[in-house]
Structures are given as C-alpha cells and as structure tokens.
Amino acid sequence: MAVPSLKEISAQLESPNVRDRMVALASLRHVPAEDAVPLIKKVLDDESLQLRSMAIFALGVKPTPECYPILVKILESDPDYGIRADAAGALGYLGDARAFEVLSRAFYEDTDWLVRFSVAVSLGNIKDPRAHAVLIQALDSKEVILHQAAIAALGEIKDIESVDLILRFAQAEDWLVRQRLAEALGNLPTPKSVSALNYLARDSHFNVAEAARISLQRLQANGN
User: Fold this and answer.
1) Is there a domain that residue 202 lies in?
2) What 8-state DSSP symbol labels residue 5?
3) 128-137, pLDDT tens digit by residue?
4) Which tens digit of pLDDT belongs to each residue from 153-164?
5) How many domains does the chain have?
6) What is the phi/psi pair of residue 4, to 5°?
7) Residue 11: which H helix or E strand, with range?
8) Is position 213 within any domain?
9) Quick one: DSSP state of residue 31?
C-alpha cells in the first residue's frame, strides 16, 4: 500500500469526515517531526475531542521546538479536562525539564483528578527530583489512582527520602497500588525497601508478588 504524500495527508485532514481525518493523522506516525507538526496543528482545535486527543499525543511523540509552548497553552487554558490531561501527558513524553514548573502548577491549581493523575505520571517521566513535594502531596489524595501514579513517579525520580512515606501503602486494598509500590522500591535502595519487598513478595496477588521479586533481584544485582 502506497504511503500518502504530505500534500495528500494535508488534504485529508480537512475532510468533513472525522474518520478520514483520524486516518490522516495516524499516517503521520512515519513522517519526520518537522514535517508532521505543521499538519498536526491543523486538527488541534478539531470539533472531535477524540481527534484532538490524538493530535496532542502526536505532539508529545513528534517533538520540535514548537511543541512545548503549544502543549503548555493547552494545559493551562483548555476548557476540557480530558484535553488538559492529554496535554499534561504529552509534556511528559517530551521529557523537557522546563515542564516541571508548568506541571507542578497544574497539579496545585487544576481541580480535576484526571489532570492531576497525568501530571503525576509526567513528573515521573521527566525524572526531575524537584517533583518530590508535589508527589508526596498526591499520596494524600482521595483518589486511589493518584496514589498509583505518585508512587510510581517517586520510584522513577529515585526519591530515597520518600521511602518511609510510601511504605504505608504496603497493605493498600488496591493491588495496583501495592504493585506500583513493589516496582518503585526496586529503584529505592534502602534496608527498609528490602524488608518491604520481602513482605510484598508473599502478597496474595501474583502481580504484586512478582513485581516484588523482580525488584529484589534488581537491588541485589546492584549490590544492595
């Protein structure tokens, strides 16, 4: 099957049929970022939220200097919480350290849990140790899914100081929280981490126990 030209993709992005526009956007995955981004921008304000979401994701995986300010503007001003969450997630894919300030502000100011969840995940993705305070606050959220994201992110940024604060989730009702804890502790080499992992390795849920065993192996391989 012939790969469509940029001109053909551009024309298809203006089709009145949303499915045509989605196909055109998807076909940009093989196009270099500098050629793809001008075309992605054509549907950033599309009437279809699904297409807008796809376009925002595309900006995160097709980085050019233009992508960062576009995503920041969407995160800070779009009226749709799902779109703001997409922008927060895409900023994490960019891995740009400048996003720390923007993401942190969004965590404190945005009232929607989905946006805050995406922020926590992205703070882990950009691996900025300054995220400690934001992620610790996320641990006190009423949303269990935020606990999952924050624990995982604390592991990503290798935040040794957080060990005492995340160990309280070793007996969390949600097994995914316990799994994220087991995974995170593999990046946090302390005696307490090893002790907790030995406990989690006997967890009743297979995924939790397996994650704990893998983390123990990682710590042992690194001499801990």
Assistant:
1) yes
2) P
3) 999 999 999 9
4) 999 999 999 999
5) 1
6) -65, 150
7) helix 6-12
8) yes
9) S
